[in-house]
Amino acid sequence: MTPVPVKPAVPFSALEAIDIRVGTIEAVEEVPKSDKLLRLTVGFGDHRRRILAGMKQERANPAELVGRQALFVVNLEPRRMMGELSEGMLFDLGYADGQAPALAVPERPIPDGTRAG
């Protein structure tokens, strides 16, 4: 793979505006009538969120994600997809470059809700 060019520089404040946190995937369910979406229930220590992720076709057994920690963007405006509300975004690696996506995960278990950065 040849990496694509780096995007233009942004001010540091743009990065500080994004809230990325560790969460544990507690449940994975299919979204009815969707070929791509999975509904993740994610624990962030003091609360849970429903996060929709377009990864149904990328995983032979999506249930294997249950119990895994990953990084999530938690301060995006809620977004409706297929009639359901998503309260964040899974941070994954590779999809934009045509690679089989991989979860962005902490190197060791860390408390849910811990911020990146």
Number of helices: 1
| The CATH homologous superfamily | Nucleic acid-binding proteins
Which second-level CATH architecture applies? Answer: Beta Barrel
What's the CATH topology label? Answer: OB fold (Dihydrolipoamide Acetyltransferase, E2P)
What would your notes on this structure say?
- By secondary structure, this protein is mainly beta.
- The chain has one domain (18-103): OB fold (Dihydrolipoamide Acetyltransferase, E2P).
- It is built from 1 helix and 9 strands.
- It has one helix at residues 12-16, and strands at residues 20-30, 38-43, 48-53, 69-73, 79-81, 84-86, 89-90, 92-93, 102-103.
- A 5-stranded antiparallel sheet has the order 3-2-1-4-7, with no helix packed on it. The chain has a two-stranded antiparallel sheet with strand order 5-6.
- It starts with 11 loop residues before the first helix and ends in a 14-residue tail after the last strand.
Concise summary:
By secondary structure, the protein is mainly beta. Helices cover 4% and strands 34% of the residues.
Provide the descriptors you would attach to this structure in a database record:
117 residues; mainly beta; OB fold (Dihydrolipoamide Acetyltransferase, E2P); 5-stranded antiparallel β-sheet; two-stranded antiparallel ribbon; 1 helix; 4% helix; globular
List the helices and strands and how they pair.
Layout: H1 12-16, E1 20-30, E2 38-43, E3 48-53, E4 69-73, E5 79-81, E6 84-86, E7 89-90, E8 92-93, E9 102-103
Antiparallel strand pairs: 1-2, 1-4, 2-3, 4-7, 5-6, 8-9
